[in-house]
Amino acid sequence: MAFDLGSYTTALPIANSQLHEIMPGTRARGKTSKAKPASSPQSMPQWSVSDTFASDVENSENWKVVVNMLCDYFDLPDLTTRNGLKKVHSRFDEIYSRLDKAYITSKDNPKMMGGIVGIWAKLSVDAILRDKLFRKGFIQKIMPLLDILLTRQVTLQALSTITHHSGVEARGEIVREAPRLIHLMEECREDTKVTELCIVALMHSVGIQMRNSDKAYVKMIRGSDVRSLLKVTVDALRMPTASAYMADHGLGLLASATMHFPKECKASPLMLSYLVACLRSTNICVRCEALGALLSLNAADCEEDKHQHDPHKIIVAARATWPAHLNTALRGYGFESCDITKTVQNMHAFQKAMVRCVQDHDLYALGKTASSLILNAELSVMDGAFEFKDEKTGQFKRENMGLPFIMWSDSLPHCARVLRAKGTPADLDAADIIELKYLIMKERHSDAVTLAEKVIERNPTLAYPYYIIGLGFSREEGLRAAKKGLKCKGLTPFMRNYLQWRAVDHAGDLGVSNLQDTRAGHKEYAEGVAFLMSAYEDAKGFIGSAPLDSRNMSMMLNWLVILTLAIRGPELVPDLRELKPILDKIDLADQIMTFIGHPPKRTQLRLTRELILRIYPSATREWAETIGRFDVLSSAADDPPIDASQAEDSLAAWLEKLHVGEGEEQVPERCTHPRISTNSVELYRCSWCRNPSAMLRKCGGCGKTRYCDSACQKSHWRDHKATCAGPM
Fold first, then answer.
1. What structural domains and CATH numbers belong to the chain?
2. Looking at the predicted structure, is the pLDDT value of residue 622 above 70?
3. What DSSP designation does 397 have?
4. How many Cβ atoms from other residues are within 10 Å of residue 162's Cβ?
5. Among 90, 551, 654, 724, which residue is least crowded by beta carbons within 10 Å?
6. Can you name the residues that pair with 387 across neighbouring β-strands?
7. Do residues 504 and 511 touch, judged by C-beta distance below 8 A?
8. Helix, strand or coil for residue 300?
9. 324 vs 264: CA distance, rounded Å
10. Sorted alphabetically, which InterPro entries does this protein's record hold (predicted)?
11. Which residue spans within 145-192 are E strands per DSSP?
């Protein structure tokens, strides 16, 4: 990050032109001739600055020169290196005392005060030094400089640097000063640089704090301040002189507010309109951050998309006369392949198998039947029982009928034991399938995942255990398992559709969360886009093959609308006519589920999709010129700073520069959106199962293909060996 602050005072006379050639904070050590200040610190008390030196500072060319002069005058080590900062550690009290006393005694010399603030800001790059400065009341000490026109920008630049590198406690100190920065933006609404630096500092402090899951930190921020913050930020983004750098931080600030302040955000139509308009940016990372913000808005008020199939409702619906248009829609897919048909068939088949088991007590045959049915429908094993009416009491009683169980679901462990005793690979697969189903029915999810992992070790080609892991709470593991399961051979339509459902849900959530992470760099952004691309592909696959009455159809259609907006962006026409077939399918799927007895819920995806489509036409018209201008500006440079042509002469460049070691520079944390092509995300996809991940391993032979693990590499070898340069 780099800003030109030197140009602010170029009208002032130059004290010594040679100073302009010295790198800020770097001691020349005889390599160049250098004018010395009129007095040295050894010739005067440490708390005093000579009038001659103060005059030189006051008449210096720019802030960079001021800081150089001060570093030399106070005999500071090179602050652009780790070694230099380490030396400050050992002399901190001495150095701080000198700077502080000079600061206090220079109230009539704003240039001197601003230069000292720049040095303090540079020290704050080091976490330990930063905390020491904060304990000295550093923030409260420098805030009054915002009221002085000459020192306003250097103070804001210092705050931007400090917040960029600050920890939780330090950030909290700056959050307390947020109202002052917001007020400054209101006062200086025509000053682009001041507005931009305020937004950057607020994003690095208030923005990060609003994304904190710990509500104790969020409580430091008042709702009234958030409302003012949203207004001044949106007003700033409407400025014709607003930069892409401001736009990046402004979007981050707006997105942050949606996480804990949805009420305030929903009360700001202009903010909502801007977020929706960002979905037409040419930068997919901008679109995805806006999408994440819109999803966050509805997180608190939504309903979970969970319901259990009620067998009685399904039977009633199967026997009922369906509305003509729904009947036509299901006939177009094929009644025999619809979920309701498969479910009813499974229920009857399991009942017959239970009756047969009562007659022959053949648990092996019951287990084989059950394992086959489990792979064909979600509601495959009914939790029923044999009941008889007691003639004396008139009450129904459940009987075991000579079997080692009463409830039908409890037959599964007994069947699994018999199957394992047979010991053939097919019987072991069947035993594992029915035992996994039993654990899920009993809501023993962690036990089910543990068993599924063991099953995969025995037989990595069996799809069902991958599905079980996909149902788990770990997004990364669930996605990896779902993608591996989709590569298994002989998948039933039910297994394929349900594995795709899990893959979309996991990848979609991971993509959004990755792109909302303020610490993300180019690699994390690319991985986030890879997640969304993966979800997009699997959502299209699910919708193209699953029946309209699938329990998950509405969720997948809502995901597809949202992912299409995020991935295709400005390719879509403003009236979104390309989405009409998907929206028509949503309407049909909702009617079908309502007829079955499961009306659609107000899920996060549904509410977000409805909000976007309601605002989209007006938002695109209102913000088209602004979004287009930001796209042009951001495409001109990866991280465009203010006055980039003079970045090398700015205090900002010096504040950000830090050599970690010999020939190595620290890369500042990214706070802007990189421009990523959807083609580049191929580097984050497994060459075999297509799982998106940043932890893929390259093929040791060709170094081009990438894999989740050795199992994926082994599975891909048959196809890959012809083009690979090395042995397997």
1. 6-243 (1.25.10)
2. yes
3. E
4. 30
5. 90
6. 398
7. no
8. coil
9. 45
10. ARM-like (IPR011989), ARM-type_fold (IPR016024), Znf_MYND (IPR002893)
11. none
